[in-house]
Design brief:
Strand content: 5-15%
Number of domains: 2
Number of strands: 10
Number of helices: 14
CATH class of the largest domain: Alpha Beta
Shape: elongated
Structural class: alpha/beta
Largest sheet: 7 strands, parallel
Strand order of the largest sheet: 1-10-9-5-2-3-4
Radius of gyration: 25 Å
Length: about 325
């Protein structure tokens, strides 16, 4: 049978929506023969099957991230090579993920940052009975209020028509003794207990540079950032500094931080990292190695950079062979 006939059948069936019986009558063929031809169209390269909104190349990249970092799921967001809009697009996909993943009665932990703020803004109003939104870190006193944990918690709770709780303490105190006294307060103890009961958590990932939000917003001084870098820390997860190998111990800030530590985050069933930005690649890889991130929502350009650097590292270890 001529190739032109196969092309006609493909056009009639997939574009015009004709039934196999209708096509058979037009060509004076049996329905069985038309069915056989339609089933062979992919093999002959006349028709390609794709799933709308889900590129195969993304699927392969997602599998690579899941395999390398032991993730439940990696979700790649098409950024259309437009880094200025990547954060908003990642936030929108994270909002959709939250609406689908959160069920009635869940405790939802939240950290801070611009990507999570975009996620909260993009959420649709969707009533979730019995849910509670819990801050995973203390308050941040900074001008950009929508990036703050308490504001993000309030907005998410509003969108889900559920309650939210506040942690009435700063995320970083000046003295070790201040934290010790605050930890004796019942309200702070209750907040920590709620952190440990979270079913799902949404976290941003931060870089440890002088350009990082925590430094530009005055939470850390430039001298503190410099000391963290000198001690080998490259990123932070919920304000917990992390080294390239995923370790976090022996950090001079630990005794001054009021937040969910890495061990607490590990106890949460599904910890979702929502991140965008190639400049954060080193921090992302470090935080993924902590073993407490289960789901990653990330833009395509950053995801490719994370895996490219991983492959380059493997080449270096193997001598380039």
């Amino acid at each position: 049978m001529k190739k032109n006939t196969y092309l006609k059948i493909a056009y009639w069936y997939y574009t015009l929506g004709l039934t196999q019986d209708e096509i058979a009558k037009r060509l004076s063929l049996s329905r069985q023969k038309v069915n056989q031809i339609i089933n062979s169209l992919v093999d002959f390269g006349i028709v390609t099957i794709s799933v709308n909104g889900y590129e195969r190349e993304f699927s392969e990249l997602e599998r690579s991230l899941e395999s390398e970092y032991g993730l439940y799921e990696a979700i790649i967001v098409d950024d259309f090579e437009d880094p200025d809009n990547a954060v908003r697009r990642v936030g929108a996909v994270a909002a959709q993920y939250m609406n689908e993943a959160v069920t009635k009665g869940m405790n939802i932990g939240v950290s801070w940052g611009s990507t999570l703020a975009d996620m909260a803004r993009e959420m649709v109003y969707h009533k979730k009975n019995g849910c509670c939104v819990v801050p995973l870190m203390g308050a941040q006193n900074m001008g950009h209020h929508m990036e703050k944990t308490d504001e993000i918690c309030r907005l998410i709770a509003n969108k889900l028509d559920c309650s939210s709780y506040m942690l009435y303490a700063p995320v970083l105190v000046s003295h070790v003794e201040t934290k010790k006294w605050l930890m004796k307060e019942k309200t702070v103890q209750d907040s920590y207990e709620r952190m440990r009961k979270c079913d799902i958590a949404f976290l941003g990932i931060g870089e440890l540079t002088e350009q990082a939000t925590m430094c530009t917003r005055g939470i850390l001084t430039k001298e503190e950032v410099k000391k963290l870098r000198n001690d080998g820390f490259v990123g932070d997860l919920c304000m917990n500094p992390v080294r390239p190998d995923g370790s976090w111990s022996d950090c001079f800030l630990q005794e001054r931080l009021i937040n969910a530590d890495i061990e607490t985050l590990k106890g949460i069933q599904n910890t979702v990292a929502v991140v965008s930005g190639i400049r954060k690649t080193e921090a992302i890889r470090a935080c993924l190695r902590t073993g407490c991130i289960n789901t990653l929502i990330i833009d395509e350009s950053t995801a490719r950079h994370v895996m490219e650097i991983h492959e380059e590292g493997n080449d270096a270890l193997s001598g380039g062979n």
